[in-house]
Amino acid sequence: MSAEGTAEQEMYAEDLTEQRRIRRQKLKELQEAGRNPFLQETWNVTAHSMDIKDNFDAMEDEEVSVAGRIMSKRVMGKAAFFDMQDKQGRIQCYVKRDDIGAEEYKWFKTYDIGDIVGVEGRVFKTKTDEISVHVTRLVLLSKSLQVLPDKWNGLKDTDLRYRQRYVDLIMNPQVRDTFIKRTKIVHEIKRVLEEDYGYMEVDTPILSPIAGGANARPFVTHHNTLDIDLYMRIANELYLKRLIVGGLDRVYEMGHMFRNEGMDRNHNPEFTSMECYMAYGNMESTMDVTEQIVYKAQMAVNGTPILTYQGKEFDVTPPWKRLNMTDAVKEITGVDFNKIESDEDAVQAAIDYGMDEEEARALGNRGKIIAEMFESYCEDVPGYLDGPVFVVGHPVEISPLAKRDPEDPRVTRRFEAYINGWEVANAFSELNDPIDQYERFAEQQRERDAGVDDEAHPMDMDFVNALEVGLPPTGGLGVGIDRVIMLITNSPSIRDVILFPTMKPEGLKPVREKEEIDFSKVRVEPLFEDMVDFDTFSKSDFRAVKIKECFAVPKSNKLLQFTLNDGSGKDRTILSGIHPWYEPEELVGKTALAITNLPSRKMMGVESCGMLCSMICDYEGEEHLDFILLDDHIPAGAKLY
Question: Residue 489 — φ and ψ, nearest 5°?
Answer without folding.
Answer: -95, 5
